[in-house]
Amino acid sequence: MIRRIAVTGLGVLSPIGIGHEYFWKQLTAGTVGTKPIRSFDSSMFDVHNGGEVDNFDPAPYFQVLDPADCGRTTQLAVAASRLAVEDAGLLGPDYDRQRIGVCMGTTMGNQSIVEAENDRHIRGVGSLPSAFISHYPESFISAAVAQELGIEGPCQVIPTACAAGNYAISWGADLIRDGVVDAAIAGGADAMSRGCFAVFHRLGAIAPEVCQPFDLKRKGMMVSEGAGVIVLEDYEKAVARGARIYAELLGYGLACDAYHPTAPHPEGLGAEGAMRKAIADAQLHERSFSYINAHGTGTRANDSSESNAVRKVFGSLADEIPTSSIKSMLGHTMGAASAIEAVTCALTIYHATIPPTANFNEPDPECLQNVVPNQAMPHQVDVVLSNAFAFGGNISTIIMGRVS
Amino acid sequence: MSMKGDSIVITGIGAVSPYGVGTEALLKALRTGEMQRCTTNGEAASDKDSCELYVMKVGAWNPAELLGKRGLQYLRPSTQYLFAASLLALQHAGLDDPKPDPDDIGIVVGSNLAGLQSITQYDLTAVTEGPQYVSPMEAPNTLANAPASHLAIRVQARAFNTTVASGQCAGFDALGYASKMLREKRTRYVIVGGVEELNPRVMWVYRHADVLPAERPEDAGLPYHPESTGWIPSEGAAVLILEQKADALARGVRPLAELAAWTSTFALSKETGKRSAALERAAWQVLTAAGRTPDELDLIVSGANGLSSQDQAEALAFSRLLADRPAVPVLPVKETLGESYGAGGIFQTLAAIGVLQNEEIPPSYRLVSDTASLVPNREATPWINHQTASVLLTSQDLFGASSAVVLTRCGE
Lengths: 404, 412
What we know:
The complex is a heterodimer of chains A (about 400) and B (about 400). Chain A is α/β, with parallel strands linked by helices. Chain A folds into 2 domains: about 5-240, Thiolase/Chalcone synthase (Peroxisomal Thiolase, Chain A, domain 1), CATH 3.40.47; about 250-400, Peroxisomal Thiolase, Chain A, domain 1 (3-Layer(aba) Sandwich), CATH 3.40.47. Chain A is built from 12 helices and 15 strands. In chain A, the strands form 3 sheets. In chain A, strands 1, 2, 5, 6, 7, 8, 9, 10, 11, 14 and 15 form an 11-stranded mixed β-sheet that branches. In chain A, strands 3-4 form a two-stranded antiparallel ribbon. The two termini of chain A are about 20 Å apart. Chain B is α+β, with helices and mostly antiparallel strands and about 400 residues long. Chain B has 2 domains: about 10-250, 3-Layer(aba) Sandwich (Peroxisomal Thiolase, Chain A, domain 1); about 260-410, Thiolase/Chalcone synthase (Peroxisomal Thiolase, Chain A, domain 1), CATH 3.40.47. Chain B has helices at about 25-30, 65, 75-90, 115-130, 145-155, 170-185, 200-210, 245-250, 270-290, 310-320, 335, 345-360, and strands spanning about 10-15, 20, 40, 55, 105-110, 160-165, 190-195, 235-245, 255-265, 300, 330, 360, 365, 375, 380, 390-395, 400-410. In chain B, a hairpin with a 6-residue loop joins β13 (about 365) and β14. The longest helix of chain B is centred in the C-terminal third of the chain and has 18 residues, at about 270-290. Chain B starts with 7 loop residues before the first strand and ends with a strand. At the A-B interface, α3, α5, β6, α6 and α7 of A face α4, α5, β6, α6 and α7 of B.
């Protein structure tokens, strides 16, 4: 028997707020969280806006490790994980901690450590603490989560760039499906990174003011930071312990364009494949979908490629199914993006409301048309599909459904 | 994670290592004990006082011979290692000509630090010279999954493309991931790789992680030796081709080994007892999943690397696991291959396949009865390929994870 997967806990830190309740309030209000970057001096760049998690104090989320010894990405991952497990009430007597796993995605990893070292090198001042530097490897992100929460099952990090969150969630689901664990703490995290900003800046991909996914006059993406974590549980066990179930994870699909190191396939080859596989995995039909949570970065190439792929998969339904991109409000939180979008999908189902695509002015005929412009839309969401695309054409799509 | 129901087999291997291109010299070195180490020549860039170190580097090789010249200058050494090892493995598996449908090939790579040197330089150049002086061609190399992403384009693999970064457990975790993808029929073939490169930034991380010798570098890399002074860092790529046994047999390919099970655990504390308990738990779990007991074990290919804290935990775990069978040989292949971090697990797997294929266990170690000490047995011993012949492979990460797999001979 294939085990069903329940989503029972949500944790989020984002440029529009910390904690899923405040996040949802901001999201459905259409709040734009991108603004001039404060964590590094952006004066050398042509553009200056991005999304940062304001007022984040890691200390309350740490009980075992010293947060000063951790990169900011690890801090964000630990905080989101603690929020999610507390939301789920996961760490009570119901589960053996050896039967819980941790799967985290990231793009840049603990890049703040590298940038601190570069700053130190430029200033010519003394060494950074070894405890801080030694925690650079990405495996420390999941290890820190496990140590803080007392988890003794499998712990992995999947650094599959901007699709990493969905990749990590998919792997967490597979561990449950295979009976390796009963529950998985899965998601993604990335801190604001000057190096990452330099990468997207050099590619000419950053919008000067705001992110406008699917808009005719969209000018690019915005580099942001954040963390999103969802608690996945064996559905039967979640029901048995009386857990609140936000949604059910119904399936996933993976694919790769194998086309270009940084550009998406213009026809959305990999995206089409990932969506088709996810739909097959969930044993659904294209008519079943109430909402598409788009990758929607706001670049010309991404949004047209994604629209092409959605149109190939959904045919005439593509421009009817409500679709939105929350990156219009958060910017692109890299490896956290699809994990935060997974939190969003669960809340969309739970609250029967679709968050808007903010900053939307003018439709682009090349792009999807029903993009829920600027205002949240009350709508019963039975099944939602969420896309994540990454450099290298790495694609991951997940599907969640309402629990009746 | 058990593979029951659908046998997952390994049908091709390839490597680029300090012993050269291909697996032959590497497997021979394991048998002869030849060691390809050299000094760092100042590469241990660090703001900590450091002594000269031994490392194992991929020496002079001509990647263009295998890969062609086009675009090579835009690829990091790690990506070039992975390319070459993958092409050899695909060739070995008989998948080079004709090539499979791209939608039938997936990629999963264990790697931790592949993007570190590039992103460090990218950020530094942007800040010190200006953001217009960074190269767009270098942009994709800044990411940890750069080798896997480049590889997909090169070999046209579209089923999925995953990188796993779980430190020294990354290789075995990649095997666990690949087996799940095959059993779910998400792909027909998986290229499973492990890759790392040595460069000043990687050495900077290792130095601050206190895994490198602070003194007596000549005594580094001695498995289970109480006086060993730390790792001998290594680099390279090892690649395996995985597929379902039925598929391999249907296309007339004789599998090299069967991947019987994978598991992973986590230790909450650095304390040796806790770390050894987590590794022992992983070993029991994976043996149970494979339908084996310690009594049926023929060999352990271990992760010991000369860092006493890790090796002691491993020895303690083995002393409990093998309490009734202390004579089971333990092969710490990193004694010869060095510690290649995210690549280590796949190199360990290559070594195990070498044993199964050559029917000989290279000089190995054995537990001293009723102790947690392992001592070398400098004689190679014959491998008896009996019906339930099984190899346990183990790894521990610096941060607390332990992973294990069981390989078995592939029955007809």
